[in-house]
Amino acid sequence: MERFLENAMYASRWLLAPVYFGLSLALVALALKFFQEIIHVLPNIFSMAESDLILVLLSLVDMTLVGGLLVMVMFSGYENFVSQLDISENKEKLNWLGKMDATSLKNKVAASIVAISSIH
């Protein structure tokens, strides 16, 4: 009975895989919103006030920081809690991949939240 419960708990980590995939869909939505904002501001760029342009640029920086946060949480969370990523040797590998444990992820997320909230 104990072995069954332990195996079931260990296998339940795979329930997180769709959650991390959902974060990749959120990243796509964020990228679409990013480019929508650029397309929206380009025709008006010469008639905009400087303060309005700065606000738009800060919004773009904000979206970029959130996107980076999503990537960090997706990859390191998947590697730490679900399974190691099998990336072929001929593909570019992120140098921090596989080196970020839960504590360093928490610290990076906290630093990202501070950076994002400082923009607002």
TrEMBL record:
GO CC list: plasma membrane
Superkingdom to which the source organism belongs: Bacteria
The answer to whether the entry has keyword Transmembrane helix is yes
Q: Which residues cross the membrane?
A: 12-32, 53-75
Under InterPro entries, the record lists: UPF0114 (IPR005134), UPF0114_bac (IPR020761)
Which keywords label this protein?
Cell membrane, Membrane, Transmembrane, Transmembrane helix
The signal peptide stretch is: none
> Per UniProt, what is the membrane topology?
Multi-pass membrane protein
Instruction: Report the Pfam families cross-referenced here.
Output: UPF0114 (PF03350)
> PANTHER family under this entry?
UPF0114 PROTEIN YQHA (PTHR38596:SF1)
Family, according to the entry, reads as follows: Belongs to the UPF0114 family.
According to UniProt, the name of this protein is TIGR00645 family protein
Task: Give the species this sequence originates from.
Answer: Escherichia coli
